[in-house]
Design a protein that fits this description.
- This protein is an alpha/beta fold.
- It folds into two domains: about 100 residues, Rossmann fold (3-Layer(aba) Sandwich); about 130 residues, 3-Layer(aba) Sandwich (Rossmann fold).
- Helices cover about 30% and strands about 20% of the residues.
- It has eight helices and twelve strands.
- Helix 1 links the parallel strand 1 and strand 2.
- The longest helix is centred in the C-terminal third of the chain and has 16 residues.
Length: about 240
């Protein structure tokens, strides 16, 4: 029996376990998938030693901090500098990034010609995959951060012109994730219009506060459900290769 799982913190909201358990049934695959809660990434070696995993997914907040614990990175993961999928072969841990693949597959069908400039809310591991994807698609972007580095925007300084000038806005933070469903990034929502596309990487709940505030102002919205589906299927393919 093959053993897989999800590494993360406060991951009771995640649908990955259900997805893969259903996937194993559909594929008639003899395997298990479990959640492994970590408070700190340095707990990872103990978890791996106890569970003899064949591979695992990685979620917030460990997509970047896990890299020193891996033996090898795929070219894409190395460029993005974030990992959400790990394959273990003879105790060798190889890191991949399927978030970029999942995000592109989910975004492309709903993208319109005016969505040529984007704001990425957040600067964590998920945001790096988003930026990598936008760059590949020729879409200009700026990061918005609580602690901005050079070239990034500060939430406190974000104004209506910034929103007007960027018709694609992506929430790459965990804000609004169940159970804290009343939270949302602090942006000037009144500047949103029907020409905007709001994409939330959060998928639980289906309609986040971020998306609801956009929808009521006529913006096009999408949650992270399709991205989850595509990136998870890509993880499955990697594990079976």
């Amino acid at each position: 029996m093959k053993k897989y799982g999800l590494i993360g913190k406060d991951i009771g909201y995640s649908k990955s376990k259900t997805f893969f358990q259903d996937k194993f049934v559909q594929e008639n695959f003899d395997g298990t998938y479990d959640n492994f809660e970590l408070n700190e990434i340095d707990e990872l070696p103990t978890v791996l030693a106890k569970n003899n995993l064949d591979g695992f997914n990685v979620t917030i907040p460990f997509k970047e901090s896990i890299i020193p614990y891996l033996d090898e990175l795929s070219d894409e993961a190395a460029k993005i500098k974030a990992v959400n999928t790990v394959k273990i072969i003879d105790q060798k841990k190889i890191g991949y990034n399927t978030d970029a693949f999942g995000f592109m597959k989910a975004l492309f069908p709903i993208l319109e010609s005016n969505h040529s400039r984007a704001l990425i809310l957040g600067t964590g591991g998920a945001s790096k995959a988003v930026a990598y994807t936008l760059e590949a698609m020729g879409i200009e972007y700026k990061f918005v951060s609580r602690s901005p580095k050079e070239g990034q925007l500060n939430y406190e300084d974000l104004n209506e012109n910034d929103i007007t000038d960027h018709k694609l806005i992506i929430n790459a933070t965990p804000l609004g994730t169940y159970p804290d469903i009343k939270q949302s990034p602090k942006i000037p929502y009144d500047a949103l219009s029907k020409t905007h596309l709001l994409y939330d990487l959060v998928y639980n709940p289906t309609l986040t506060e971020f998306l609801a505030k956009g929808k009521i102002r006529g913006a096009k919205i999408a949650n992270g459900q399709a991205m989850l589906f595509h990136q998870a299927n890509r993880s499955w393919t990697i594990w079976q290769e």
